[in-house]
Amino acid sequence: MGHQRLKVTSILWSNMSRLKQESSPKLKRHFATSGETIPTQAQVVICGAGAVANSVAYHLTENGWRDVILLEKDKLCSGTSHFGSGTLGLFKPIAERNIIMYSIKLYRQLQEKGYAIGFVQCGSLNLAQTKDRMIYLKRRMAYNLPTGLHCELLSKNETRQLHPLLNTDDIEGSVWVPEDAVAKPQEICRALVKLSKEGGARFYENCTVEKVLTENDRVYAIKTNRGVVRCEYFVNCAGMWARELGERCDPRVRVPAYPAQHFYVTTEPLAEVTAAPGTTLPCVRDYDSAIYARQWGGGIMVGGFELDAKPAFASHNIPHTDWKSQLPQDWNHFGPYWDKAMHRIPALRSSVNPVLTNSPDNFTPNGKWILGETPEVGNYFVAVGMNGNSLQGAGGIGKAVADWIVHGPLPTPGQHQLLPFDVQRFLDLHNNRNYLQQRVTEVVGRNYAILYPSQSEYRTARKLRCSPLYSVLESRGAVFGVRMGYERPLYFDSSYKLLYLIYGPITIVINYLLSCCRCLLQSRSDRVVDYLQNLCSNDVNIPVGGIAHTGMQNERGGFENDCILVRQSENSYFMVSPTSQQTRVFEWMRKNLPKDSSIVLKDVTSMYTVINVVGPKAKPLMAELSNSDINLLPFTYKKINVGYASDVMVMAFTHTGEPGFCLYIPSEYALHVYDRLMTVGKDYGARDVGCLTQRYMRIEKFIPFWAEDLTSITTPFEAGAGHRVKLNKEYFIGKFALQRQKERGVEKRLTMFVLDNMNPDTDIWPWGYEPIYRNDQFVGTVTSAGFGFTLDKLVCLGYVHRGGGGAAGGGLGGGTGQIVTTDYIMSRDATYTIDIAGRRCLATPHLFPPQPPNAAIDAPSRRYRPTLVTSLKT
C-alpha cells in the first residue's frame, strides 16, 4: 500500500507544473505578494515551527520527502513549545505511552549525536497519598509491566531514598519509573529544524497562513501574507491558533482545541539541590496535590494541573502578536498549589525569588491529542492539542503523522493505537468556542484525576444534546453521563447515592439508547444495494423488513464500522452504528459513495429517540400498546402505532442478547410513547434502567463493542463474528484479506473470561486494559469488563494471542505471528489469570457465552438476582 500511495503521489505531483500555468482566476488573485518571495509550490506545507511541526518535517524528510516547507508567523521555535516543563513521562495509558516512548528514543539519539538538548533519563516518582490512588497506580503498573515498561512499587521510605528532598510522611507509597526523562524543549525544536533542513525541508519566518484553499474538497494551495503556495498536503500544527486556522478554510475544518492558562514556578539555585553536583533528582508527580516537580538547573520547577483551570484569552480572540504580555502572573490562582509543593518539598520554602510563568497550552475536549486527516478536506492533516506538554508527544506524533501522509490511511498495529487521537472523533458542537472555554477549565485537572468508570463524568458544557425525555427521566432519578454531547441515563436512583443500578427479578426493563448514530441510505434504483454490498462483509441484500448485523471492513479486514442495517424498502436502508464514531463512520461511507450522486446518505440521528423494551413480557406489553400483532421473527422490523403515535419502528433486536424490542420513535412522539410504556407497563413490572445495565448485559452475552473490542485492525474472525462474513459474495472491501486469514488462521481471538473467585461487593473490579496471563505468560489485554447478572460474577472480554508478544502483541491490536486455535485457548492444561491492580485473579475462558445469548421471546421469565452496590471499595 505504501508503494501504491507513493506512485499516486508522484503522478499527482507530475501535474503540478501544468497546474501552475493553468491556475484558476481565483488562485491568480492570491499571487499578489509583498516582501520576501516564498516558493510557489511544495509537496507538503506545514503551518507552525514548534516541536510538533518540526518533528513532522523531520520524519517526512527521513521518508525521502524533501519538498517540504514550514511557515511560521513569528520566529522559529517561538510559540508555546519553548514553554513547558520538558518532562517526558511514560507512566500513561498504552496508546500515549508508545508515542512518548518513541519521543524519548529520538531525543536520546539527538543527545548522542552531539545536540545539547539537556536530555537526562532521571526517572520519575509517582506518588499516592490515598489508598484509592495507590490502587489506581497499581492498575497502571499491571498493564505497563508486561507490555514493555519497567516500573517498581516503592514504600514511603524507599521513595525518600530516591529523592531526599521529599516529605513522604503522608503518602502511601509511589511507583518508580526509571526510564522517564527531562530535556530542553527549545533546544529540541532547534535540533529538529537543523536536521529537517539537512533533509531538504525549508523554513520561512514571519509568514502567516491566512487561508487553506480547496478544490473538490481537497487541499490545493495555501494563501499566506507573502503569496500563495500550491501544495498536495497541508499539516496544521498551529498550536493554539489551529482552531482559528481551521475556521478559515472552505469547507470549514474542525480543530476543537483551546488554550488554558497553564502555570509553573521556577526557583533560583537552592543549596539543597546543588549539594549533590552531577546528579539529577527524579521528577515527582504528586497526583493528589495536582502538582509535578523537577530539577531545574540548580533549582526546582513546580507546575500544576489545576482542578479549576482558567481559559486563556477568554474575553477576546487569541492574539497573533505580543500574546505573552497578555497572560498575567496569577499568584492568587496558583498560590494553593505552591503551598502544596512547599509541603511536599520543604526545601522550596528557602526560595527567595520564585518566578511564576503563565504558559498557555492547547487542551482538547477529552484531554487527548488531535491527529490525522480531517473529514472535511482531503490531504488536510492536523497535529495539535498537546494538553500541557507538547514535548513529550512531539517526537512520536511527528513520526505518526508523517507515516500517515507517506503510507496512507490503512491501519497497521502501530496506527491502530492512534484511534483515540483521531480528529474524526469530533462533531461541530465540540468546536464551539464557548463550549471549549468551559470544557478546558475541567480538562486540565483531569490529567491527574482518578477517572472512575461511569462516575467521572464531565461537569462542564453539559445539557447540550438532550432527548425529549431528559426532564422526565431526571425527575425519575436518572443519573446522566455524556457521549458525543448526548445526555444519556447511566442508572436510576432516586436517592442519587447508588453507584450502579443492577436490575432484579422483573419482567421488563425500559432502557434508553439516546446516543446511537443513525443514517438513512436511499437511491432511485437498486444502486444502494450494490453500494452496501461493496461496503459490508455480510450479505445485506435481505428481504424488505429484515435486519442485518454487519461489519464494514477496510482492506486489511479490520472494522471501520459495526452496525445494523434495516431494509425499509427495495431502495432504502436505515443504519444504526456506535455513537462515538458518528463522524468517522459517516465519512467512511461518504467517501465510498458513487460520484454521480445516485445515492443519498443522510444523518438522521436527531430525528429519533430510541427505547429498548427488554424482558419476557415485552411482547404482550407491546401488543397491548399497539393493538396489533407483534409476532416478529428475530432480526426483522415493522412500523406500528403506539398509543396516538404513528410510524414507530419496532425491531426484534435489543443490543443486549435478551428478548424484547428496540423502538425507534420519531422524537416528537417520544414523551407520549414513554408515558404509555410506563403507564401500561406497571401491570407488567416495567421499570427504568440505564446504559450501564445494557453495557453489562452485552458483555455477559459476549457481544463485542466498537472502539473497545472492535477496532480498525481487529477482524470478524478474530472477534468471533466470522459467521457474519459472506466470502461467497462477489466482492466487498476487505474480502481478500479475510479470505487469507480464514485459510491461515487468526493470530488473536476475542475470549470471554468469567472471574469465578471474586466477590463483587468487596474485591477490586476490572476496568479494562488488565493483562491476561496463560500459565503465567502474558497473552493479551482486557478490552471491556462488567458484572454478569445471570452469572452473578464479574466478566471480562479480551484478545488472546500466543505468549511472547510483548508490547506489540499485548492484545492491543497486534499478534505474535503465531496462529491461535480453539485448542490453544481452551486447553485443559491452560490456567488463566487476570491481573487487577497487582492481584492475579483466576479466570475461566469461554469462546461462547456460558448460556444462550438469546432466549425465545415467549420463554418463562428468567430471574435476576439484584446486587445493589452502595459504594465502590477500591
From TrEMBL:
Residues 748-846 form the Aminomethyltransferase C-terminal domain. This is Pyruvate dehydrogenase phosphatase regulatory subunit, mitochondrial. InterPro entries: FAD-dep_OxRdtase (IPR006076), FAD/NAD-bd_sf (IPR036188), FAO_M (IPR032503), GcvT/YgfZ_C (IPR029043), GcvT_C (IPR013977), GCVT_N (IPR006222), TrmE/GcvT-like (IPR027266). It comes from Laodelphax striatellus (Small brown planthopper). The lineage of its organism: Eukaryota, Metazoa, Ecdysozoa, Arthropoda, Hexapoda. Belongs to the GcvT family. Residues 44-404 form the FAD dependent oxidoreductase domain. Residues 529-729 form the GCVT N-terminal domain. One of its GO terms (cellular component) is mitochondrial matrix. Residues 418-467 form the FAD dependent oxidoreductase central domain.
